[in-house]
Records
---
Amino acid sequence: MGGAITFPLAANGLSVRLWGTWLDEELISECRRGPHPRLGTALPPEVELFGSDQLEEALAGAELLFLAVSSEGFVPVLERLLASPGLPPGLPLFCLTKGFVAREGRILRTGEGGAELYGSSFPGLPLRWASIGGPVKAAELARRVPTASVYALGDPSLEPLLAFFRTPYYRVLASYDLVGVELCAALKNAYAILLGICDGLFPGPGAGPVDNLKALLLSRAVDELAGIVEAGGGRASTACGPAGIGDLYVTAQSGRNRLLGERIGAGERPAQAYALMRSSGQLAEGYLAVRHGPSFLAGLDAAPAGGRELLDALYRILFGGAECRAELERLAGGYG
Amino acid sequence: MGGAITFPLAANGLSVRLWGTWLDEELISECRRGPHPRLGTALPPEVELFGSDQLEEALAGAELLFLAVSSEGFVPVLERLLASPGLPPGLPLFCLTKGFVAREGRILRTGEGGAELYGSSFPGLPLRWASIGGPVKAAELARRVPTASVYALGDPSLEPLLAFFRTPYYRVLASYDLVGVELCAALKNAYAILLGICDGLFPGPGAGPVDNLKALLLSRAVDELAGIVEAGGGRASTACGPAGIGDLYVTAQSGRNRLLGERIGAGERPAQAYALMRSSGQLAEGYLAVRHGPSFLAGLDAAPAGGRELLDALYRILFGGAECRAELERLAGGYG
């Protein structure tokens, strides 16, 4: 997504610099030689590329940051950013990282254990924060398929900057429900694993898809998500909009989280499937959302109105050795 | 679906009779010889088959009717049913027909022109009415994929009968929002055409899906549907549940309405694509929902809170010669 967002930014005449972390050396070199390996298309020629040891050069004079690292890489990258001498205070940070942050390390706020959302975890951060929700598959944005994203603004002064992202094919919808958009972005990955499990559980030639089951679980997931967003202090309507339903749909159609679910549904052990995918560069963020989600929920004042049955079932499957078919059949029977 | 529902009914030990209309002679003969041609599997051996001239025999002693004819065949079939001498008053009718009924013919209620929903169109009907919503693909139900449906009961006395349908793989969810379930069942077909148009508009080898656009329109469709349900006197929450989001998801994954949209998106003229599909036995009900939907909306006291932009765009595309790409780009930009 870091590569894909350069298309609308460059189209708007901005001077765009793409910095790769220490895990992206290979990717940055490939972009120097030809098409972006994950987008399948070359980046706009105006984009300048920076290796991981060139963070200071990339940051010099920056007026806006767009951060698209995985949740595992987020804290180390943020620490490097904050340690950069040239970082101007109040720099806008548009953050695409999804998920929960476990309370650990020096930049996170109070408490032992537990989990927080990114946007609300760094109260003293000298940056103006926005969190970006879906529904976006990066390769489609790079292909200029009509696309929309929800940009949740932690600070109203960021709203005029949205004009830098907007193009005729990329609509940027402003939201002030930071908690809601962050929860949707994190949890839709978890629910996409659940929908992937459906695909894996009913395999075999001629068996075809199991859309009935997936449709039922999709509607249950939106319901549960809306309740969790509300319990977290966000707006239930965010879960029923593009950042909720829309992003869950895109994520469940294809991608790493759905694939992880399919492998687990087909019988692979969850920890092993996750580790194997991760070691081949396919980090399924939903796995972490399921691990940290219960800690986040435990820290809320209110229980979600729609319950948390789906997340709890996922937790049992991924971390408790529970059997997929029994869990899914219970969920399919438990609606309403 | 008429064939698929015989699986749970027979599993519950009911004596099941499957009657085919005058359009189903071929289908009934095929079922006598082997697998149901559309389900790909043989019906349960307990099911008795009846040709179109055997309605009276099929009805004799019936305690429950399940009607699964297309919206075009609905009124003629209902007229034949009502003319049957042996029809006991108050017989339960579980109706799967989706869509709007144009006000015409002798059994429909007041008024010239306009359109009504089935369940509310026959106030003097000597039957106890229930309307069935999704999300169900019939072939998956016949394969015993875990499936749920929403049964909207026009009469609370029908609720105990739901036990005849329920099996471990088929969950039947009771609802009393007859209007909401009927509107979802009708309009999800229309919105599935819109999502199909996305597939047709961006074709070509290597182009891949356009899930970003479809996800955005899916979330807009749920929003619009919820507003229309509410304006029609139903509950917005029905649109956000399995009969709404869930059924729209299933319908947009595959099937006739999505295919009609894809053909139109790829450049075929709407009336021609519809007629060609219909003549090969593929009736895309959403086409009729788009035609009659505006008349239904015009008869409501209130305008839908979320507007009707998607339906209006569909109407312009299907019946007004409007260009797909311009309409879709306008819809993609118009959110929120």
---
Amino acid sequence: MKEFAKAVLGFQEPVTKALQNTILTMPQSVQKIAEYALLSGGKRLRPCLTLIWYNMLKGANPIQHSTLSIYDSAIVLEMFHVASLLHDDVLDDADLRRGKESAHIKFGIRPCLLAGDALLATGNKLMAEFQNVALMSVISDALLKTANGEIEEIELAGKVPSHEQEYLSVIEGKTAWIIRSACLVGAIMAGASKEDQEKAANYGLNLGMAFQIVDDALDFSDESIIGKPAGGDLRERKCTPPIFMYLQSLTKEEQQEFIEKFSVLPSPIFEHQKQEKIGFTEQELAEITQKIIQAKYPEKTRELASKYLQKAEESLHDFTGQNKELLLEALEYVRSRNK
Amino acid sequence: MKEFAKAVLGFQEPVTKALQNTILTMPQSVQKIAEYALLSGGKRLRPCLTLIWYNMLKGANPIQHSTLSIYDSAIVLEMFHVASLLHDDVLDDADLRRGKESAHIKFGIRPCLLAGDALLATGNKLMAEFQNVALMSVISDALLKTANGEIEEIELAGKVPSHEQEYLSVIEGKTAWIIRSACLVGAIMAGASKEDQEKAANYGLNLGMAFQIVDDALDFSDESIIGKPAGGDLRERKCTPPIFMYLQSLTKEEQQEFIEKFSVLPSPIFEHQKQEKIGFTEQELAEITQKIIQAKYPEKTRELASKYLQKAEESLHDFTGQNKELLLEALEYVRSRNK
């Protein structure tokens, strides 16, 4: 793990610099919001993945640009990621993000929506500067997957997925696709073969799936660890694996009661989500959260993530060297992360 | 004018069909909003301009695609335009759009924001399918200009522009750039030379500037004509030409009072816009609106638009034939439109 942490640390300065330069091209009113959201902490996993894949696959014909560098390509998906967080926070009305005040509480809802729009547009434009069809294809896919993933997640809120695939499809759009895209951008920038590009994409997709599944496990950790109250997904009626496992442990009658209360959203967004029924009380939410933790469903959820980490590892099979080691360590980082 | 109206009418069916097909690819929850916003009236000026420029310049090597047609490329900027209207309505909290209930009143604020995001992402992806760097460059520029134009307009609200350029820069981003992009897409799809592409872009930019200037004149028309109360820009503190002309007609003292009240926004978005002072009363707003109409400042604003229509006409100098006639008629349509 030590080498991965060192590599991540080494990338921080040039990545931060590229982010700062890009923020300066944005309209003045939203620069502060972009800074707050982009420059305050976070490991910048996405840019790091782009850079490691680029370094591993860099061949005779990398994509070059007279004024932009690989770091500029590496920040685009981080910008998309942060833009989606800004819009998410507004939609979820979350008060905390990474343990600090959410941007929309600090700056207001409408400025954050505008800042999110500007980040998406600025990132998209930055990537277009490389004048490469393959890169633009990755970026337009990522934009679409993220926008639709957000909507599908909201559509599914309050519902118990009838099939695992519904949950997996949501986390693919919500998290995994951007991580996949980050790895793929590194491979394309490196001038890698189609075959190697596909391996980068597969690695990223599976790492991203595991990342979100671990995240859904971590949602049932103590507030002092994750910087927000435990059981947030239960409150927002997102039926993640720990909640699904709890549901499975109930009797048929209890299940029916649970499903009925689960369907009442604290803050419905679409018309069909509005309900007259009564949802969980605060006490019930706290009790269910405790039961989920005691039954070790978060730990069992992590086991689910292992399947994806295994697949990600298989994508690295044909590679060797120091960068492969870093990508293997990244898998361990996701497997064992506890905040 | 007759031929242009006939051409516009002829384009409606294939354009509607392309829009319907694309809407079906969007997540179900936002399809109704997209339909409401995209398929209920409007002349579809932007797609029509793409199609006329395409027809005029179509040469030996137009851009082709195995499953998509020119109509698919023509709807992308209409989708961007409608997405920006959806986000605008939410930000402005406008109740009416083209005389009917705004989408966010009918469907809710958050669904409309999500629908706007999805329209932008879907349009962007649709254009990326053509796998053409020049098209993607137009599209990424349009996305950026529109996002930033929206922010710059809000930044300028409550302020009297110190220079005409500030107003012109806002309307360029808000309206003209998308119309420019629509013409340019037609030229690129046609396989036109760089020189002809530039003429299409210039025509569109100037037509778009004129379009918005006429729109700002029309804002002081009767509610029965424009489908919303007269003087909306005054209420929203957007210092358009008719308002600027009125300000110029005041004494120094009156100007000072006007500027102070004008700076108080009914609904400030950014922190620096919040004020303790007292703004215009309803009666004052109605009186100023009447004075602007009586002084014929809307008509004088239309004269300003003529300069841009003249420039647009010059861009057509080297062309001949039926499509040129349509583009000339489009200028007359913008010049004389009264709703």
---
Amino acid sequence: MKAALVAAALLVAAAPAIAADLKAEIQHDNERFSQAFNKGDAAAVAKMYTEHANALPPGAPIASGRAAIQKLWQGAIDGGYKNLSLTAVNVERTGDAAREIGRFSLDAPDAQKNIVKVEGKYVVIWKHEHDGWKLDTDIWNMNK
Amino acid sequence: MKAALVAAALLVAAAPAIAADLKAEIQHDNERFSQAFNKGDAAAVAKMYTEHANALPPGAPIASGRAAIQKLWQGAIDGGYKNLSLTAVNVERTGDAAREIGRFSLDAPDAQKNIVKVEGKYVVIWKHEHDGWKLDTDIWNMNK
């Protein structure tokens, strides 16, 4: 009984740490994502998604599945988008998934081909697979 | 033993029906949402969200909490946005939440105040509360 109470107390004490760890874990994956993108490696970016993931970019149709998602990011790299930065703002676990709300910034060419800083926000549903968290649903938009 | 097998078989048979029911249930809520919006009732729209929900509109900052979300939709109604239509495309349950990918269309005034049809896509994380499903995270963008 006493051991069970101690175990329960430890679990309660550990809960905020687990939540903080999940956000840190997701932020670590965000950094892997932006590093791959900023190196121009669309294949490495696509591997961070689940096989049947959906990406919903503004101004373009839904990209379904890893191959379509790789093409989407290759298009952004070829189009001169760079210096992507991703910041997890709020991460919440739901079953075997995690919902992340985040902010991003990147340098993008405008209509006159000048490089401008673009800021926006996103929601990612991550799924835990045998080799870690993968993006399963990814949608974003711009702040302006 | 036989009863257990029959029960297991029934459960297997019921699984796709449950998934279809969830999508139909969410679509029913989508219709309540668009009806409230199209009547100009931002308070009724806001009540469909959880108390601490986040809405992430394109071209504007995150609206956190029901009051901010009501203000967001009141602004859209006052701005002349109308004839909202929402269609659930893919709904997946994760724990006590459901992830919906959907499509929307609505009539919106352009820079010259002409009404144009806008089409887009969205992701909603629904949470099940005592009185039904509520939008907890809501993000969208335009197709063009």
---
Amino acid sequence: MSILVVGSVFFDSIETPHGKVERALGGAATYFSVAASFFAPVKMVATVGEDFPRSEMDFLAQRGIDLSGLQVRSGRTGFWAGRYHEDMNQRDTLDLQLNVFADFRPELPASHRGAQYVFLANIDPRLQSLVLDQLAAPGVVGCDTMNHWITGSRADLERLLSRVGILVINDEEARLLSGERNVVRAARRLLAMGPHRVLIKRGEYGVIQFSAHSVFAVPAFPLEEVFDPTGAGDTFAGGFMGELARSGDSGETGLRRAIVYGSVMASFVVEDFGMNRLRTLTPEAIEHRYRQFVSLTDIDGA
Amino acid sequence: MSILVVGSVFFDSIETPHGKVERALGGAATYFSVAASFFAPVKMVATVGEDFPRSEMDFLAQRGIDLSGLQVRSGRTGFWAGRYHEDMNQRDTLDLQLNVFADFRPELPASHRGAQYVFLANIDPRLQSLVLDQLAAPGVVGCDTMNHWITGSRADLERLLSRVGILVINDEEARLLSGERNVVRAARRLLAMGPHRVLIKRGEYGVIQFSAHSVFAVPAFPLEEVFDPTGAGDTFAGGFMGELARSGDSGETGLRRAIVYGSVMASFVVEDFGMNRLRTLTPEAIEHRYRQFVSLTDIDGA
């Protein structure tokens, strides 16, 4: 089954304690799509400017990503520049130019409206709802959001959450959205808003998933060096939704395996700047690290 | 097999956002001993003052803890008072009176010198070494330490570490002792100091164990309410060493299961003030939560 993702495509200039990169391909929809493309066909709905290079268009197309919903508009592609601290959980935004993304309005081609696996990456919750309005009968709908919408567009966000099955969010956002510091209480409040699954990303500490009746926690893969954390959350979501679509199993076991595949993909993307690591990644490397994850977490393992 | 532990017995006055308690039984050796006593016989070497109540002595004895190495000396038992912040990872010490603990010098009765399972709780590393000097041929030696000794007695601590098999410390201490922020690099440096296993406690995020050839990570049990984190690390160590002694398996599988039992015990102790929860805990409740841990972490679980 193919996956529909709606979100941003940006260029990112990134500085970390390990070096820097200028105008690297980025944006939530991009990280998501490239990660998911290792598991299932992806249809990407986003917008870029006329400056978007042919070579990157080719890269995405070669990964099997359907770009028929990508709006190429007059103007420039969105741009973000940021600098990570020595503690890479903290970063400063140095520059932000929304450009064509400023008035992005997702429009789904007819071929996209029957999508069964849908991910609403972090954009204005009104636009996320607008995507759902255009879908016939989506099966699995995941979404992300961020502090900006939680504080500034809470009513829109709550309307959206009542229509979403799986909320994928980081721990800080979970606290802000729920008003609860404790992760269990936060998750319970978020489940009450609509989603039947809440996945809370905890950075270097992994991911914890809650439903009304189950909890699953997986650590992050322990890496000796994190070069660049940009896009790790979106890459996680891509691997997660990708594996759900590949397996067709969105029961407890399918979700757990999908969370591990998401964690595998996130562990790769941070090994190099931007999405460089994903450009050379192989299915064999993904399966190898999946097995390492099993060994990392298996209580009875040796 | 029985376990020997050497460390502190204190009274603690504790204030958390959930309430407070005055002069509760505490100290690293106490938390360790009570937790370990659910798994194997424990011999405790420590010191208390004449003010130590008969009722607490009886409680420890009833848990099967051998108190023949407990020095009751003229003076008062050590006392600590602390207040936790809203974020309970942070606390302030309000009062500290070492009392008889100030010149504690561990002396092992002859009956203790053949101990196979030994835990050196957090005390001056010279005293920890002094304990090892008195042992015939210990099989499994674990130790803890703290920032105070890492910065103030590094040479003594490094001498100790060259004689210890399993180092159990928290993430902040691991960073300080290794000089590395990254947990993988920190663990590698610590392994190079002598221990063949390093267990790094990460509070609400669980525990990660490193050896030269393996990594194992387990999340903390997700609790809706942490009433009082005091003693959680020592209780973890007690459950961990206790299970090692009970199973007799200190291979990879035995260590992993012991880490989960340690995590189980820590998850109980924080549910109430001081060690109150351990006073009413049953083996059945421990086994039940162990199974919940397996389900929490099992990738293929349902």
